[in-house]
Amino acid sequence: MAKPDDRSDNAEKLKRSVQNTVSNLEESEEYLDEHADEISPEESEAIHAKNERRRQSISDQRSEIQDETNA
């Protein structure tokens, strides 16, 4: 028998995920600031691309939090 769908803590889980993603974004930006002259252009570009995906993820998750809160 399948477990019932308990979504009561989805918003909290999403908030923690956003906080973790923001933290990772900030850490990678600090890394770029501190080591920009030591890393290759390819690595720098990869980090910038990943940070853009993180920003999009944060935005998407915040929208989902709104949906969960309004439901």
Describe the structure.
The protein has helices at residues 10-35, 41-70. It contains two helices and no strands. Helices cover 79% and strands 0% of the residues. It has one domain. The mean pLDDT is 93. It is mainly α and 71 residues long.
Features of the shown structure:
single chain; 71 residues; mainly alpha; 79% helix; elongated
**Order of SSEs:** HH
Low-confidence stretches: none
Q: How far apart are the first and last residues' alpha carbons, in Å?
A: 26 Å
Give the averaged pLDDT, no decimals. Answer: 93
**Could you give a short account of the major beta sheet?**
none
How are the elements arranged and paired?
Elements: H1 10-35, H2 41-70
Helix pairs in contact: 1-2
Q: Can I get a quick summary?
A:
Helices cover 79% and strands 0% of the residues.
